[in-house]
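PROTEIN DATA CARD
Card holder: ABC transporter substrate-binding protein PnrA-like domain-containing protein
Chain length: 368
Origin: Streptosporangium longisporum
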Amino acid sequence: MAAYYRRGRATAALTACLSALALAGCASNDATAPAPAAAPSDAGAKTDGGTVLAGQPDVNGDGKVVIGVLSPGDINDKGYYQSFVDTAQEFATAQGWTIIKRGSVNTSEALNAARALCQQKVDMVALGASELRDAIPASEEPVCAKTAWYVPSSDNIPQTPKIVLSTDEADQSMLAAGYAAGLIMKDAGHTKAGFVTGPEADFTTGAAAAFKAGIKLVVPDGTVVTTYTGDLNDSAKAKEATQAQISQGVKVIYPYLGGATDASAELANSKKVLTLTPGTDRCASTKPTFDISVLFSPGDYFRAALEDFSEAKLQMGVEKVWTLGVDPFPTVKICKPTPEQKEKLDTFIADVGSKKIDTKAEVKRLGS
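Structure generated from the sequence above:
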């Protein structure tokens, strides 16, 4: 799905428990009561940055490693939310770990869903996006005493000693996405782009503004048509918005969506309109095809955390801020760039990383 780090970028859909391992491990919506209090865990080793829980990755010491994942969105959306659980599943399988995963968790159910995972003796509770922040108080409860917590951060989620926060600056990837689109538009002589997304909220309006600013850095007279469908997963609404934008002469469309991404992109493909991805690398995709991959996938960030967890190095009580042009992710790539386009985009990304380009200032200057 799309995400602007909140990067929780979607609203919850139908409650689903979608793991092949589900019969052994799906958390039920009816699980409301905390489990009996666990014995206090060893606080673990203190470091300069935070605390490494004792016994990591088998934090609760039961001889196995179980990762519990809660997502507010569709974990089969082929994008933002699915990347998170797919990464967890891939890494866990390689390690011989077990994954318990649940998608489309409503924010009002987050706390009880987290408690239910802890009742199943998970070693880590991982939230797929910050919409589920209401689950965090469970990290302080006896039921979750021997559990690590991974939380994608936005909206100024308070740091506590019990959780690790993972965040990025969304202005960076979205400005770079617009810049990449602008490079293609300039070479093709296009001046009009489109942005199709779901609810009109801070994370979508901010993303649209940054995308527009990035385009205008390359195409000063460029314009962006923005449509808010109200739903990140409704394919019919996404197609209607996409068709309306194409009818207005849009030549590049960013389907900043969740489950509706492919419906919008396929329609754009049929009209030879260029497209971008909302979070994952889909340059190899053939149906639909994409021209630019904007990579801010929570799965990429989560994998790094799981690697640290497997090596007993994941620290609670700290925040990791991922930076464009410094870290491997976030980043943006043109799927089939000309040498000049690649060089210009690489330079732009490096300039963001070195702070030569102030992304917030550029969005404020050009994104309104």
